[in-house]
Amino acid sequence: MARQSGDVIVDLRNISLRFGGVKALTDISFDVREHEIRSIIGPNGAGKSSMLNVINGVYHPQEGQIHFRGQLRRRMEPHHAAEQGIARTFQNIALFKGMTVLDNIMTGRALKMRCNFLQHAFYWGAAQREETAHRLKVEEIIEFLEIQSIRKTPVGRLPYGLQKRVELARALAAEPHILLLDEPMAGMNVEEKQDMCRFILDVNDHYGTTIVLIEHDMGVVMDISDRVVVLDYGRKIGDGLPDEVKNDPDVIRAYLGGAH
Amino acid sequence: MLYREAGQFKSSYAEDGRIFPIRQDRIGFALLMLAFGVVVPLLANEYWLKAILTPVLIFSLAAIGLNILTGYAGQLSLGSAAFMAVGAFAAYNFILRVDGMPFLLALALAGLAAALVGVLFGLPSLRIKGFYLAVATLAAQFFIVWVLVKFPWFSNHSSSGVVTAQEVRILGYAFVSPEAKYVLTFAVVAVLALAAKNLVRSATGRAWMAVRDMDVAAQVIGFRLMRTKLLAFAVSSFYCGVAGALYAYTYIGTVEPEGFNLDLSFKILFMIIIGGVGSILGAFLGAAFIVLLPILLDNLVPALFGDALGAGFASNLQLIIFGGLIIFFLIVEPHGLARLWQIAKEKLRLWPFPH
């Protein structure tokens, strides 16, 4: 793979996050470069999801700094992160269960829509034009992820693998600069995983989206990542190219246990 | 086979986004509007217009209001009647105190006043959810009625607290007859129902449903919870407020604050539960069901049993049957009459073929 990674887009410095007395993250620093696929791995409870939550403003770390595109980011709410072009999927699917696939994906475009609710109430005119314009973009994504046949199905009725795909579609609808994927392949069979890998690589390639990926399948991680950061008990124990990380004694110890 | 959709293709996204994508539905709906807007007021007798059709429309409007808040935005509320009271008394005072206030403007202002109060009582929704929020809106219910009773200014110092709605006059025409009042109600409800349908099928509605289904994900996408929830409270209360004003002006004529009690709030809640939570059509079906069923039972029970039961027992029996039917409907179709209608339509698309 000859992907070109660019400048540092997210720079995390000495991040510490506590919930009461529980230290979820301790003094973690790493960076994400533009256009790369950056994986975060680690055993369960290592703080991987907390890390994503810090990046997109759901959690606010007590210590440390986040530089986004070279600018220091003060305390920021999730919708600010969304406005800056950070989209994500969740470990436990967080789709809007009562809505159709199409509506779910349309919500991803919310920040790009400008009409107010009075225009919506009137509908004909500006609101409808806007709706149609965004529908075109959404249809492009639906085609890209090969979910045309289910666009009018309520997401609650879909099987797990497809729900994961719809969630990816919803995140993509925002045309994000950075896409945070929290275990996009958990619970999938081999074929579904292959599909998902293909989509992730295509997104990275086609749209140039920077991807931060949490995944447990080491085969997948080593195959598609540009760089990997390893967490264990809220600390960073490894960071580097997949091959470097794979052979790092600390990483092997965290995953397999040390010799006694 | 009743529905022949064959040959109807959608060739643009605008067509795909229609309220009634199937031609038969559009024709059917136009006929329905014509029937209720023109034929009914010409043919129906005074009792039907006054005691059944007008209140069904008004309650439908209130139910749409509650459905926007509870069904679409997922915020449980027990204060609908109070917001209706705000609307009714606001309209009364606007017309009373402002010279030459046009009725329709007063109606809109009444809605806005209710919206304002709704936003105020919606503030707790930013911190609490579900049943706890319901209790907070219960406070709105009691507080608003208390304020309207406590300060006689609202009822223009009427000694009994009862106010009599002024004559409704639009462009010099006085809406006095039941037919005229019905048509006015019908027009207002039709316009507002269409606006509600447009809201819920556009980005605003999606924002409400997103917050309802999964608020963390909604936030991460970029929705602002506060703005979205408070807008739902405002729009919902606006609808309830207009419904309250219509209730006073085109339905009962004389209102007192205690008329808008918790019972009425529950009644509206039942309407959306039975009609269908998260459905505009459901608001109409639910309102019709709740208004018509007691009347039906009123006529049916004496017809079936005669005087054999005695008046007291007969009226209790009606309540029992009413409650039993509600439970029955909820077991058969927990998603309400609107869903039942939807299923029936899907079946009719194929009938009489199995696939």
Keywords:
heterodimer, A: 260 residues, alpha/beta, Rossmann fold, 2 domains, six-stranded mixed beta sheet, four-stranded antiparallel beta sheet, 10 helices, 10 strands, globular, B: 355 residues, mainly alpha, two-stranded antiparallel sheet, two-stranded antiparallel ribbon, 14 helices
Briefly say what this structure is:
Chain A is α/β, with parallel strands linked by helices and 260 residues long. Helix content of chain A is 37%, strand content 25%.
Strand order in the sheet with the most strands of chain B: 1-4
CATH architecture of the largest domain in chain A: 3-Layer(aba) Sandwich
Number of domains of chain A: 2
Q: Kindly state the mean pLDDT of chain A as a whole number? A: 91
Strand content of chain A: 15-25%
Assess the beta-strand content of chain B as a share of residues: under 5%
Helix content percent band of chain A: 25-40%
Largest interface: A-B, 40 and 33 residues
CATH superfamily membership of the largest domain in chain A, which one? P-loop containing nucleotide triphosphate hydrolases
Count of DSSP H/I helices of chain A = 10
CATH topology title of the largest domain in chain A: Rossmann fold
Q: Please count the beta strands of chain A (DSSP E, at least 2 residues each).
A: 10
End-to-end distance of chain B = 12 Å
Q: What is the CA-based Rg of chain A, rounded?
A: 19 Å
Structure description:
- The complex is a heterodimer of chains A (260) and B (355).
- Chain A has 260 residues and is an alpha/beta fold.
- Chain A has helices at 48-55, 78-83, 101-107, 117-122, 126-144, 160-173, 190-206, 218-224, 242-246, 249-256, and strands at residues 8-19, 22-33, 37-41, 63-68, 71-73, 86-89, 178-182, 210-214, 227-232, 235-240.
- In chain A, the strands form 2 sheets. Chain A has a 6-stranded mixed beta sheet with strand order 6-7-8-3-9-10, sandwiched between helices. Chain A has a 4-stranded antiparallel beta sheet with strand order 2-1-4-5, with helices on one face.
- In chain A, strand 1 and strand 2 form a beta hairpin.
- In chain A, helix 3 (101-107) packs parallel to helix 6 (160-173).
- Chain A is globular.
- The model of chain A has no long low-confidence stretch (mean pLDDT 91).
- Chain B is an all-alpha fold.
- Chain B has a domain at 44-260.
- Chain B has helices at residues 13-16, 23-43, 46-72, 80-97, 103-122, 130-150, 178-201, 203-213, 215-221, 225-252, 262-275, 280-305, 311-332, 336-350; strands at residues 163-164, 169-170, 173-174, 254-255.
- In chain B, strands 1-4 form a two-stranded antiparallel sheet. In chain B, strands 2-3 form a two-stranded antiparallel sheet.
- The longest helix of chain B is centred in the last third of the chain and has 28 residues, at 225-252.
- Chain B is globular and about 65 Å long.
- In chain B, 45% of the residues are buried.
- Classes of the chains: A alpha/beta (260), B mainly alpha (355).
